[in-house]
Design goal:
This protein has 237 residues and is mainly α. 84% of the residues lie in helices and 0% in strands. The chain folds into 2 domains: 2-152, no CATH class; 183-236.
Amino acid sequence: MEAYFRTTSYALVTTAFLAISLTGSLDGISIALYSIAVVVCFYRDVRGAQRLRLREWMWRALSIAYVPFVFIDGAVISRNRVLALVHMTLFVSAAKLFQNKRDRDWVFLYLIAFFQMLLAAGLTFNATFVASLATFLFFFISTLAAFEIRRARREVSSLEDRQSCSVSSRCVVRTDSDRRGAHSSLLLLDPKARGRRRCWSVERSGRYHWILRSRGAGGSRVNQEELACCHARAAGS
């Protein structure tokens, strides 16, 4: 499912880019650079590469730094406000593709792709654009279905992990209770063993509560000073 979701997501982004490219208004340098970025990012995502990934703050800094360039592009370079916006969407989308993408990052890419389709409609409206729009709608529905299935599977997996943790916690409590009953006579005869047993119980309880907290089930961890004092008591008994 992960591979299918990734493929449909990249197909959706690429379809919006092709819709703009087929208008004939986009320059060759922008087409080449964005095509390379899409191919490289798709390959890296398939391989699971983690090196040279942009962090969230880097992407935000690049996006903010590009804003003044939009006005320069519209007034001097392309001399077209629509093309200046197209260049901005391509830059922001390419930078976002180089991140480790979470759900909200994918949603942002979908919104950029939709905005690019609107810009393509503003540049031209012919049979080629209609075909691109139909392809975009097909991949949009496919991507949306894959996105929801992927999120539902993740939620089910998280629920199963919590249930498994709950069952394991009850087993630990039952095991501790059985051990206390089996060794009660030994603890009454040997004071030093009683001290060690108490320390073992405190330490085990602290570990048990820590597991519950890490799993989100609540609970308070045993005080470390009490545990150290208990060990000292057992050693001096």
